[in-house]
Here is the input.
Amino acid sequence: MAEAKFPSGSGPAARPLSPHLSAYRLTLTMAMSIVHRITGGALYVGSLLLAWWLLAAASGPNAYATFQSAASSFIGRIVLFGYTWALIHHMLGGLRHLVWDTGHGFGPAEREWLARANLAGSIVLTVVLWIVSGYLMGGLR
Amino acid sequence: MSPRPASMRTPLGRVLGYGSARSGTEHFIRQRLTAIANIPLTIGAVLIVISLIGHNQAAVAQILGSTLVAIVMLLFIISTFYHMKIGMQVIIEDYVHDEGAKYALLILNTFFTITVGFASIYAILRLSFGV
Here is the structure.
């Protein structure tokens, strides 16, 4: 029924709401939770780069050269480094969520350990991937 | 039995059309299913990308169009774009409370993921079939 909906301003008296984010001290697991969502959003936008790369490869040498010059520029490398980290971080964060889905890893020590492993693992793996890539490229030409 | 039932409708009649109790978790399960698939597929795609760094277009086109690489990339694209679509849907539903804006963004989300996803798939197929 339409009457069930209160028009704005004439609703019931303001009731106390449950405490939201600002009421709590920021903890590592909280920060990691929002970073998981942010990296997911970044990867969403980053999918345009994947599509660009694939379409450039399918279009021909000129289109591919344009992509390569953008990707190997200073800003391009920063974006791709961030893309790599977001991908690895979101993947490891996803593994953490899959562990939680089984009902494990919720203890105070476990969830802290998982968060630290997630963060450290994503940074180390990203750096290792870029070192390997740089080596394959012959010293980051 | 209550002395004055509020409605003559049967309990079954009231719940018909709302879906079965078993189907509400479909979204959750698909997010997990694609997440599990994304792990080996992302590792495969990252290895493919790294192996292609520094090659010229002709070499990249040939490798991307080869059977095994193309299949891994296609599966990677399908699984990640589906995961992306339902992930962004959750973000929109969490933060956008205005009904009009919410549905507009949900539609744009579908259009974006299908367009970018199919563009990527088209590129791989074009390389595979050498058109």
